[in-house]
């Protein structure tokens, strides 16, 4: 635990160098131009306190008192904007100080006594509390684990301790920065005659920053800064990715040992080489299922004993999953009368994939006739300690996992293992396997690329113009542009249009796509949006079996088109 605390402290300490904190520094600096020596302490305590508190508790608060968490963000924006206004209009500052003085007089017994020095601290504390609500630090493995466990309401004493150590690390350089700023403005003979004008300039900066936060443009700025300075993210992940930290993070997640090595690329295959399948232990029960589809009542692993069962973790926008579905559905149809069952566990990557109507549309599109469980809260995913889409777990008639497979490919071998378990159960099966085209990529290919701020890797694509960058997606404005270099045969993009009239032009290597390279969802160079497009996965590029390097440019002619992730085939 000490190693994890040490690295959490170091990670917090170097956050002052992170591009994602730079947009807040002008506000911190502007807040120190007035208010005395205690104001930097107030700002620092406010930021680290509100950030730690809301990171750890927001999911609990929303569960107890249902409300939109964006209300907190809006309130913080109003506070920051108003504080900026007080720097521009000094009379507002006098009014506020009068309120504070009267409030202080009620709480201090000496007549006429007010703690003037505390007014600077309180003002800084209010500013800091607001900033802590809207600040999203660059997340490495440590902070990502904290956020994930907090979001799933799995906070424990260890998580609280790591968070506290992290914010202490953040607070030390932040306090030093605020203090130096305060000293600089209070003691500089050159600047002292212009203090009033400087405060007004900083007031304008605070208001502009508040507007950027309100429109979410602050996240766009952060993304662009990360693109300009990718070395910070690389340094952070190297710092936090040593074996000791990984082991301690694993313990915080409630696991006794390090997870088994598994492929990072979805197209890499893990198989059991032995022809006599090993016993990998009892299959976990289905847990926390939101809704069962294609079946009259909920299913259980216990109730499925006596059957050979294939658990298929999938999600309907994942191109890797989509390429496996013809094989899975064929196995089900071929062996369902011989004691074989398939359960599709649909665990969403994106919020909109939780929509039952969308999942039903995908089930219809891909002709899925076996039961599908909506695992919207990742409860069954976590019970299986799964990490990948697609992932398959083959279970024997006694309820034991006998084979696992992650990613695409090796379909013939998987089917052979299905038949092995059916034979163990006394079923007669022929030796022939299903012959379908294996569309798994066989060459180097651009990896899946997420377009939201939460999982974006710097330097993978370029946004131009105004964008509303959220955790899961980026939303266009009129005239905004996205560019990405890719190596693939086909390019797919998960899109949620504002309506079917959204206009997105597709350009490759400087020319509008044509019949030679346009995907099936393109018409006259534009994405053809459809109301009955259930999975929101649009095929933009099809090079007809000739994968190569190209520059893709998307020009958005309408506002509000949400883009989530690229996948390549």
TrEMBL record:
Residues 277-423 form the Thioredoxin domain. GO terms for cellular component: plasma membrane. One of its GO terms (biological process) is cytochrome complex assembly. PROSITE patterns: THIOREDOXIN_2 (PS51352). This is Thioredoxin domain-containing protein. PANTHER family: PROTEIN DIPZ (PTHR42852:SF13), THIOL:DISULFIDE INTERCHANGE PROTEIN DSBE (PTHR42852). Gene3D superfamilies: Galactose-binding domain-like, Glutaredoxin.
């Amino acid at each position: 635990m000490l190693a994890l605390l040490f690295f959490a402290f170091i990670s917090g300490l170097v956050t002052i160098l992170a591009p994602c904190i730079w947009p807040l520094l002008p506000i911190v600096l502007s807040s120190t131009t007035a208010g005395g020596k205690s104001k930097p302490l107030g700002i620092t305590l406010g930021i680290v306190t509100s950030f730690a508190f809301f990171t750890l508790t927001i999911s609990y608060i929303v569960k107890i008192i249902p409300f939109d968490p964006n209300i907190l963000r809006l309130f913080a924006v109003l506070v920051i904007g108003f504080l900026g206004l007080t720097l521009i209009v000094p009379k507002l500052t006098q009014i506020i100080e009068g309120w504070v003085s009267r409030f202080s007089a009620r709480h201090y017994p000496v007549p006429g006594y007010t703690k003037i020095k505390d007014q600077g601290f309180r003002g800084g504390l209010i500013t800091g509390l607001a900033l802590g609500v809207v600040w999203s630090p660059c997340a490495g493995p440590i902070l990502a684990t904290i956020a994930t466990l907090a979001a799933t309401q799995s906070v424990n004493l260890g998580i609280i301790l790591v968070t506290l150590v992290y914010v202490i690390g953040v607070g030390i350089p932040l306090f030093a920065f605020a203090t130096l700023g305060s000293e600089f403005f209070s003691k500089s003979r050159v600047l002292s005659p212009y203090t009033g004008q400087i405060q007004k300039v900083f007031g304008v900066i605070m208001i502009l920053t508040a507007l950027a936060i309100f429109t979410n443009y602050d996240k766009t700025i952060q993304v662009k800064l990360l693109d300009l300075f990718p070395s910070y993210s690389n340094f952070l992940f190297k710092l936090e990715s040593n074996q000791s930290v990984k082991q301690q993070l694993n313990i915080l997640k409630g696991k006794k040992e390090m997870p088994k090595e598994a492929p990072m690329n979805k197209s890499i295959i893990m198989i059991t080489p032995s022809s006599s399948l090993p016993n990998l232990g009892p299959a976990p029960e289905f847990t926390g299922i939101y809704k069962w589809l294609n079946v009259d009542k909920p299913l259980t692993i216990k109730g499925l004993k006596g059957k050979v069962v294939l658990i298929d973790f999938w999600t309907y926008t994942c191109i890797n999953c989509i390429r496996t579905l013809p094989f899975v559905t064929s196995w089900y149809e071929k062996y369902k009368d011989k004691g074989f069952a398939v359960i599709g566990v649909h665990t969403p990557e994106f919020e909109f994939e939780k929509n039952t109507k969308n999942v039903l549309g995908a089930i219809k599109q891909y002709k899925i006739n076996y039961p599908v469980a909506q695992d919207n809260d990742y409860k069954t995913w976590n019970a299986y300690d799964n990490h990948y889409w697609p992932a398959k777990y083959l279970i024997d008639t006694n309820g034991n996992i006998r084979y696992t497979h992650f990613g695409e490919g090796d379909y013939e071998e998987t089917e052979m293992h299905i038949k092995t378990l059916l034979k163990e159960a006394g079923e007669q099966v022929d030796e022939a396997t299903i012959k379908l085209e294996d569309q798994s990529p066989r060459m180097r290919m651009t990896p899946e690329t997420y377009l939201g701020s939460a999982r974006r890797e710097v330097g993978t694509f370029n946004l131009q113009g105004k964008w509303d960058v959220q955790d899961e997606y980026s939303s266009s404005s009129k005239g905004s542009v996205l560019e990405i270099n890719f190596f693939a045969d086909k390019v797919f993009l998960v899109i949620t249009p504002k309506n079917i009239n959204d206009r997105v032009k597709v350009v490759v290597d400087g020319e509008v796509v044509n019949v030679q390279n346009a995907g099936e969802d393109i018409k006259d160079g534009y994405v053809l949006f459809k109301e009955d497009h259930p999975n929101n996965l649009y095929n933009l590029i099809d090079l007809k079996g000739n994968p190569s390097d190209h520059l893709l440019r998307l020009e958005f002619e309408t506002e509000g088109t949400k883009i989530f992730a690229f996948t390549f085939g």
